[in-house]
Hints:
Blueprint: E1 13-16, E2 22-25, E3 32-37, E4 43-46, E5 48-51, H1 53-103
Amino acid sequence: MDDESPKTVWDLMFVERPAGTHLSESSTPGALRGLARDDDNALVTHADLFPAKAAAITTAVVLLAAGTALGVAANKAAPHVRSKLSDLRSKLNRRANDTAEATDPEAAPEPEQADVIRLRPRTFP
């Protein structure tokens, strides 16, 4: 009698099946079979399975690299973005306060700007 348990091999696959069909549910919970069925659960055809090892590894590496680069960029940009948003918020608050004061009927009117007196140089004989 062999003491080793049976070995399982996992393969990542791409599945091709007709539109409007779904894969059959297996008796193993959460597993699917390679049979394509319609909405009435009638067998339509077998699904075609294609190995996805090279494509999946390449995609995973690219997504991991892109996610890492995006995370680094976000960490470096965060202080600058926070600063710009803070500046914008303070500008908007100042403008809102200026507008509120201008529309306040009890606010005292601003004094008018004094007329400018222009002096011409004068020459003496």
